[in-house]
């Protein structure tokens, strides 16, 4: 199994995530990442963003990567029945009730003013990444949530690349004016149910360690802390 997951967006950026495995040494990970870093240099990519255990931090800084922040990772088994009684209505983008542009605008609104410290990509790059990572039916993964006729938030559940059962959310967020009402936890819980219907048996979610509200949502919906990683970045 690969020691890193890698998402490539042509010459613009690479997203790299360490896969922690039993029996692999620090040297194994260093050697594997050296190969990725060399390929990044050779192919002259715009920037590389890395999620990796902070035990490697001193070595990474010597390779000219800069630390952006730290994330916490939570997990939950999806074996039990997922209740999702809620007043919220939700639709997928694939239903055609709104346009791709309108969904992108909702995404942009939801990420406004959050506690996450990672450098945000332009929304055009975000939408391109969604279509590339999730494939031709990417619109069926993009959900938006309404209370009455008012937009509350969005979520993008999917099965993690290279797995058959690991549920992830490409993104999850609530619009600024609807925060602090408990609606984020509702959207998150409904999304876990959608994810279970996608045949996910467990969920993994992450957020910036400073995002106390998102951590509370994880805990409220039965998720437990699994890991911590640093966010590092290098660019040309």
Describe the structure.
Helices cover 30% and strands 33% of the residues. It has 236 residues and is of the alpha+beta class. It has 2 domains: 4-72, no CATH class; 76-226, 3-Layer(aba) Sandwich (Aminopeptidase), CATH 3.40.630. Strands 1-2-3-10-4-9-8-7-6-5 form a 10-stranded mixed beta sheet, sandwiched between helices. Residues 134-222 form the N-acetyltransferase domain.
Provide a compact summary of the structure.
The protein is of the alpha+beta class and 236 residues long. The chain has six helices and ten strands; from the N terminus they run E-E-H-E-H-E-E-H-H-E-E-E-H-E-H-E.
Structural class: alpha+beta
Task: Assign an overall shape.
Answer: globular
| Contiguous runs where pLDDT drops below 50 for at least 5 residues | none
| Rg from Cα | 18 Å
DSSP strand tally? 10
Helices, by number, come to: 6
Following the backbone from N to C, one meets helices and strands in this order, namely: EEHEHEEHHEEEHEHE
Estimated helix fraction: 25-40%
Number of domains: 2
Q: How far from one another are the termini? A: 30 Å
Rounded average pLDDT: 92
Name of the top-level CATH class of the largest domain: Alpha Beta
CATH topology of the largest domain: Aminopeptidase
**Major sheet summary line:** 10 strands, mixed
Strand content: 25-35%
Strand order of the largest sheet: 1-2-3-10-4-9-8-7-6-5
CATH architecture type of the largest domain: 3-Layer(aba) Sandwich
CATH-level-4 superfamily name of the largest domain? Gcn5-related N-acetyltransferase (GNAT)
Q: Features of this protein?
A:
single chain; 236 residues; alpha+beta; Aminopeptidase; 2 domains; globular; transferase; Acyl_CoA_acyltransferase; GNAT family N-acetyltransferase; acyltransferase activity, transferring groups other than amino-acyl groups; GNAT_dom
